[in-house]
Amino acid sequence: MNAYVSTELSTIQMLDPQRHELALLQETFLNKGGTIEVLQGPSFVPPPVRHEPPPSVKVVKAAPEPKPITPAAIRQKTKRQRERDERLVIKVAERERMTARARKMAETMTYAEAAEASGLSRKLLSTLANEGGFSFKPSAHIGLQNLRSKTIDEAQDAKDCERIKAFAEIGLSRTQAMNQMGIRFERFNRLLIKFEIYYPKLRKGPHPAFFAKQQ
User: Could you give phi then psi for residue 65, rounded to 5 degrees?
Assistant: First the structure.
């Protein structure tokens, strides 16, 4: 602590000749009629107070009261509204008429017979039956298809065999060959096994190369 104080004192004493010379120069300047003006340093001026406007209050308007429906207002329906109501009444009456007609035919007819007799589609007859809660007589041929034996046409199989071989030679896929012949996979596969046809399956190619996106 003492060493620090002594160092500061020696520094101050070293500046004494300069201060003495500055004092002499100042005195000579004053003797010649000069004046020394002391300038005022900068002062801090606070900014003006900012006055925020008060928050606006949103006024919610009350919903207008509904106007009472009077008999005069009911009578003032537009012509379009009256026509729409009339069309709706006609449509409902026509629907009821078709339902009654379909119900009468369902007592003695099947869907196919009723469609042929009335000219209505089977889909519409089915909709009318579901809406009216009735059903048509079942067809006498339902289920007979399952009792019939499935015969194989050897001549047709041989003909299709040649077509399959031709499609394999030109490089068509199995799906493309079946679409060209109009047959399903079961028949196509049966012909491959029956005639020992080698029809290679298409393999997936290599994945595309990945290129980094340029910045």
Answer: -70, 135
Residue 126 shares a structural domain with residue 160: no
Closest CA to 136 of 151, 116, 152: 116
Distance (Å, rounded) from C-alpha 34 to C-alpha 117? 134
> What pLDDT band is residue 1 in, cutting at 50, 70 and 90?
very low
Considering its fold, how many domains does the chain have in total? 2
State which amino acid sits at residue 177: A
Question: Quick check: 147 pLDDT over 70?
Answer: no
Ordered DSSP codes for 49-101: PP-PPPPPPPPPPPPPPPPPP-HHHHHT--HHHHHHHHHHHHHHHHHHHHHHH
d(CA 16, CA 57): 73
Residue 111 belongs to what domain range?
78-132
Residues 159 and 190 in one domain: yes
